[in-house]
Amino acid sequence: AGSAILAAMLGGKQRMLVDVRDAELSSDPETLVQFIELAILPIAAGLEGLQSTRNRVKIVFPKVSQLLEYRRTMALAAPEVVALSTLGFDPVEKRDKIVVIVAPEPDDEEGFAAMKELLLPTDKNKQLVQQPVVILNYHMVPVAILPVEFETAYQLHLLSVQFMAGGDANEYFQQFRKG
What we know:
By secondary structure, the chain is of the alpha/beta class. 36% of the residues lie in helices and 21% in strands. It contains six helices and six strands; from the N terminus they run αβααβαββαββα. Helix 4 links the parallel strand 2 and strand 3 (82-86).
């Protein structure tokens, strides 16, 4: 996912969707933290050495509890390169080079309203986000309709695999050869 985001950014993309439908990410906060860090690592590494005023990756969480969980288990501890925020608290700053929004839960209407307001402000005094934006959807359902068009940069859906259990597969196949 990280190299796909970096390639999309280098290709000039401004609005990207990372759609990873995996039950592990939904159920295990530590796995989600590891995935987020691996997704932003190529970008953060590229920004780390730049002598620029815009050299930071901003990760925006839908809830404070998710931000605290991330902070508790994160491995990337470089506040000059990775900054954290939550939806609804003016999360984007001029210093941010890219904004990664962790999608709210599918039934979190307040979170989706805050995300939509960030992407397309109704207040005329607020400016549109100028930086590239990545939405990370780790839920098992598609992200709700967004007010701005996003291009899928990375998509992962689990495959459905069937297998046979048993000691001898030849016995199983014999039943089809007799007819």
